[in-house]
Specification:
2 copies of one chain form a homodimer.
Chain A lengths: L14 H4 L4 E4 L8 H12 L5 E4 L24 E4 L6 H11 L3 E4 L9 H17 L2 E3 L5 E4 L6 E3 L8 E8 L2 H13 L4 E6 L8 H10 L5 E6 L5 H12 L4 E5 L13 H6 L3 H10 L2 E3 L2 H13 L8 E5 L2 H13 L9 H10 L10 E2 L6 H13 L5 E7 L6 H13 L5 E6 L5 H12 L4 E2 L2 H19 L13 H13 L7 H10 L7 E4 L2 H11 L3 E6 L12 E5 L2 H14 L1 H4 L5 E6 L5 E10 L3 E8 L2 H4 L4 E5 L4 H10 L17 H17 L3 E11 L4 E3 L2 E5 L9
Parallel strand pairs in A: 1-2, 1-3, 3-4, 4-5, 8-9, 8-10, 10-11, 11-12, 13-14, 13-15, 15-16, 16-17
Antiparallel strand pairs in A: 6-7, 6-9, 18-21, 19-20, 19-21, 22-23, 22-25, 23-24, 25-26, 25-27
Helix pairs in contact in A: 3-4, 6-7, 7-9, 10-16, 11-16, 12-13, 13-14, 14-15, 17-18, 19-20, 23-24
Chain lengths: 719, 719
């Protein structure tokens, strides 16, 4: 009988899934290419170190293995069982697994949640059994897992790529995508550590798998494919912990799914549904990709190369054109191809052929031999002003390409600086395959196209920038009255009021120390005149009503009121114009100091289910409405994050004073953003918030108009 | 003796290069891997149909061929000779070729212009010989050509990729890049028609080769790699003629070359050196690429697929996730993945498995067989609301993937709509290699990654959009006085004046019917008062001097002058402030009507050597200075092009009236741009021109400030 493998000491409920000591395949099939056959065949072909127990009522041997008529007949303990039976039989099979003491089950069968109500009922039924027995479940409707650890070699999966062992682990929400990424990694020679695809994910989640891979010492790099984040807060926590230790490369698809929800505020409308995931990726320190090919190629660079210490790249080539392309691609990715220092140029001049180009790119020319490459590689590795190397290497028939490859591999093996190779050759020819093998076996990431090599190097640098980023902990500003703020919100909730009246808005802003233009809420012309006197002229009068959501659209704002008479007249006018609204409820108005000058900005927040709120910052007016020049962050923000938001809009230069104007008070603005972020963090009932405009000068920033909408059961009227 | 091939009738001086009836290799070498050996070996290996004559003083047989001690000993006519001799011997070898009657020479040798003065002298020497004998020269420092025509099979080249015959021709400025594109095409199974790389290009240019390939009936698609355009006007003419008949896919590298020239105007500064090539590509109808991998993959789609009739793509898949990625990529490229009509959905429902998804993407699910694929393919091909198909195809072990591949190939072979395949499989397995062969031999472009497939399809659509674009011929607007305009320019040239004085600027604008705010040039307070009276108040007074190039910086503008007294005061003030300038030359001033309201815009032009001028259009103020939101075109522009420029700025929505303002007069603005474009077209002496601002209202557009700088020998003072 097959010996039982000895996986690491059990500490985790996913150990049975990723390190099974024995595997049963319930629904194993003698029919070639059936899923229940492929799994058994894959376990055998991959050299699984433990026993495989096919289970099938026919009980005839499958692939030479003793097959059992039922699970309870299987001798010994079974850590992991595959279920490859019709959906309707899965609940009973799960119960059988429980009786047998199985710890983890991969439900390969489909026909559950993805098919609607009846499928969901079956899914619920087998999960009830699983929970009753403490079984962890991967799937249903999933492929399974692979663990390439030489002591185990568990291929509990029906895909057909047989990966080499290595340090890259892969987790994919879609088995189809997981399959081709697995294939893509194998095609370019990247060794795999572990793989999991969790299908419908009704128990074990992507986040849980990520955590497990993060803790696995054999996993150097994690590659993730997802189409959304079920629990963004949990994901953020787990992913952040991982990226502090190892690179996490990820791609999120499904950006163009139809039917994004409508939103009532600027912030809501501009936020969009996918932006939360982008912000979570960014904050978690994930190296994100839009292109799956780029992700796969970046994994190759991350698998073998040390971290990049900086963005200064030296190009070394034996042919001109590809280095030109690589330079373009490096610069487009924000890297630098700096001129080389005199010391390095002198070393190169002594060592290289007279026709060589000693600038960066260094062109050793096509006739260069291994010693020329060695000298150039050494000079560039020794140059402290160079952080990483891109070697563009063609294989002229008249040079000893294998000896050159050995030089490149040796330079890479030193591990002093990241090195990637744009290797251009004809792999149909044996001598060049041998050259390629030298590079590959030497751990040199090879790319056929210069831009691909450049982008892989850029990804390495992006990962490092994220890892080096100082920890930024949001810290609560002083002078926040959370008790009073909560009272305001609860009062509004009791009134079943979604859009807060001005008095409540002003109180909330005051609780959080958010500067707001001096204002009073009034009912009629007399109050208004008194308020104006107290505030000081000129003033503005605005209607305060939920129905007039964009006040200027209904003519509900009167500006530039210079004295009491003007205030009274404006009030009368507003009352007349809004008579229809007054029929529903008594009207209130806001008298506000009219501020002079100042740059118009917008600060907003929008609820992001599962992770709190997104903050938005931008220049006001056309910048937000026409140009969409806004930036987002997750609340709450650390001081440095608020400062970075302000500097990240395209028009940031406008904040620093154009044509002689004084620079705006970025620090005051950052503090305002920070305080808003704490307000929405403390008050999850806030659905949307817009401070629009915020006016900023060289010494302060003050909100002039503010709207806050709370959540309530029924959708807001008018949506 | 080898029979002489019979190429098409000779009509073109490049026929001898691309259709040689006999080839001599001067400097042929018995040493394996020497260039002079590789060329002979390649001609043999590729099955060249004509005689190959090695020439070498040793005269020992090379690769079994009789070798001649000198060219004159070779019997019969020689169309094409390779020169693989040391640079110093090339002029004499060229003379020998002339004596022998050789019509085309490929100079493979290096050591010429790329090495400086001595090399240039040698280059000049052999070109003198070539011209004397009417020899066309490819190179020096180049690879050569390939012609895969079955009747010829000329591999006059020392690269080592042996391409299959096909319809894609390749021309590359860099042999290194040409080599890897050649390899890239071969790697993905794209057949080659012709290839040429012209190295230093001292005689036969990229443009000339392009023209030749455009005329070649066997070339279906042309792929071009270039690092710049030596003669953009000639290139534009040739490329435009080609794209009317066949797709021209091109990539331009070298965007990040250091040392762009400084410029004095907004237009000049924003134009940048590379932008001319982009505009030429755009106007020529070229399908342009920034990424060489994408270019190579697009060539595969273009080589076998019919033109796309529209942007509406149907996705057909047997697995979910990749279709999600493909949808993202298609939409990012501006294509659509529309819902399917009821008729098609009903057809699909009848034909597919119950679990299939009938939306777009259509997911036939993994267990679908060939008949399901056939039915779905037919339904989508029959749907008039679908323009092209992307098939994402995985190879589950439990399906007959070869039969499915035959269905996909049959659907593609019908040629009704473009079809590309995202084929995800393990090519290490024989059965899947066979599946791949069915697709490849059926002319189905296969891509391993969904995004790559999507972008190749998008490129097919881009090519079609360019081909379908109506011809846009610039036509001279009425009322242009070219005679007077030329006189103004010549007068300034005689005065050796680069920056034109206001009087000349105004006269030029008048000659071209370009509206300019009512203005007069004056010398002192009295003239100014009279001018202001004639123009009507309020007015502006500005200093008119070359030295005060940014007038407001030196305080040389006074606004809002409401009466004569104010004008006199302002003039006195200006004269006092500019006393230092007045010491050099008598000062002139401009009195101008002060226009009210209007949106600030900028229209400019900047000389683009070799192709006339680039026009620039943008919104004024921060939009041009901070946001860089400007667009460019080549002058002269057709009316539709001027209209498109206006609509192409990011902030174009601002022109249509924001917050209740009336839309601006786009037609008037377009006519102004058109007239400026004719001015710079007619007057090549204009180096830079800025109309900044142009003010636009709902009924007109008027230039308010204008600067025109002419070329002159010495650089302009102050630069």
């Amino acid at each position: 009988m097959t010996p039982t493998p000895q996986p690491p000491a059990r500490r985790d409920s996913l150990d049975a899934l990723f390190w099974p000591r024995a595997v049963a395949v319930i629904g194993a099939s003698p029919r070639e290419h059936a899923i229940g056959h492929s799994i058994v065949a894959n376990l055998q072909a991959f050299g699984y170190r433990g026993p495989v127990h096919p289970v099938n009522p026919n009980a005839k041997p499958i692939l030479g293995l003793k097959t059992y008529g039922a699970l309870h007949e299987v001798p010994g303990e079974v850590d992991l069982a595959h279920l490859v039976v019709p959906a309707a039989q899965v609940p009973q099979a799960m119960a059988d697994c429980g009786d047998k003491g199985v710890r983890a089950v991969i439900v390969n069968s489909a026909g559950f949640g993805e098919l609607g109500a009846e499928g969901l009922r079956l899914q619920q039924a087998f999960m009830d059994e699983a929970r009753r027995h403490g079984i962890r479940v991967l799937g249903p409707n999933c492929q399974g897992i692979i663990n390439t650890d030489p002591s185990l070699r568990a291929y509990c999966n029906f895909t057909n790529t047989m990966p080499a062992a290595g340090g890259v682990s892969l987790v994919a929400q879609s088995g189809g995508v997981g399959g081709f990424i697995l294939q893509g990694l194998a095609d370019i020679g990247v060794g795999l550590r572990m793989y999991a695809s969790n299908g419908n994910g009704c128990d074990i989640s992507i986040t849980e798998i990520l955590r497990y891979l993060g803790d696995d010492p054999g996993t150097r790099v994690i590659v993730l494919y997802t189409e959304g984040l079920a629990d963004p807060a949990a994901f953020l926590e787990v992913a952040s912990a991982i990226t502090a230790r190892k690179p996490l490369l990820a791609m999120r698809a499904g950006r163009t799914a139809r039917g994004a929800e409508a939103a009532a505020s600027h912030t809501g409308a501009l936020a969009g549904s996918g932006r939360v995931a982008d912000l979570v990726f960014e904050r978690a320190g994930i190296t994100a990709f839009d292109d799956e090919g780029e992700l796969i190629r970046a994994a190759m660079a991350h698998a073998s190369q040390p971290p990049a210490r900086g963005p200064r790249i030296a190009l070394l080539t034996n042919t001109g054109g590809p280095a030109v392309i690589a330079t373009d691609a490096l610069v487009a990715q924000g890297l630098q191809v700096p001129p080389l220092g005199t010391g390095t140029v002198n070393r190169l001049r002594e060592a290289l052929l007279p026709q060589a180009a000693l600038d960066n790119p260094v062109d050793v020319i096509a006739t260069a031999g291994p010693l020329h490459f060695r000298a150039a590689l050494q000079a560039l590795l020794d140059d402290d002003a160079i952080d990483a190397l891109l070697v563009a290497f063609v294989t002229p028939s008249f040079t000893d390409t294998q000896a050159i490859a050995r030089e490149i591999a040796a330079a890479s093996a030193g591990g002093r600086k990241p090195l990637v190779c744009n290797f251009m050759t004809d792999l149909a020819q044996e001598r060049f395959r041998a050259t390629h093998a030298i590079l590959r076996d030497g751990g040199v990431p090879c790319f056929a196209y210069p831009s691909d090599a450049a982008r892989a190097l850029a990804a390495l640098w992006r990962s490092q920038v994220r890892r080096d980023r100082p920890a930024e902990s949001p810290r609560r500003p002083v002078g926040i009255d959370t008790v009073r703020a909560r009272a305001v919100v609860e009062r509004a909730h009791q009134r079943k009021q979604a859009m807060l009246p001005a008095a409540d808005v002003m109180e909330l802003l005051a609780c959080y120390g958010i500067p707001f233009a001096s204002s009073r809420v009034v009912g009629g012309p007399d109050d208004a005149a008194a308020a104006a006197r107290a505030i000081g002229f000129p003033v503005v009068v605005k209607i305060d009503t939920e129905a007039a959501s964009h006040k200027s659209d209904v003519g509900g704002v009167v500006l530039g009121l210079a004295d009491e008479a003007a205030v009274r007249e404006a009030m009368a006018d507003l009352q007349a114009r809004c008579a229809a609204l007054a029929a529903q409820a008594p009207l209130r108005f806001v008298v506000q100091a009219q501020l002079r000058g100042g740059e118009e900005l917008i600060v907003g927040a929008s609820r992001a289910p599962g992770i709190g709120h997104m903050l938005m910052f931008g220049l006001g007016g056309i910048h937000v409405e026409v140009l969409g020049d806004v930036v987002f962050e997750l609340a709450p923000v650390a001081p440095a994050q608020a400062v970075r938001m302000i500097g990240s809009i395209r028009a940031a230069a406008l904040l620093d004073g154009v044509r002689g104007r004084a620079p705006l008070a970025r620090a005051a603005l950052a503090e305002l953003i920070e305080r808003v972020s704490w307000m929405v963090h403390d008050l999850p009932e806030i659905d949307e918030l817009d401070l629009n405009p915020v006016l900023a000068w060289s010494d302060r920033a003050v909100a002039v108009d503010a709207r806050i909408r709370l959540l309530r059961e029924a959708p807001t009227a008018g949506r």
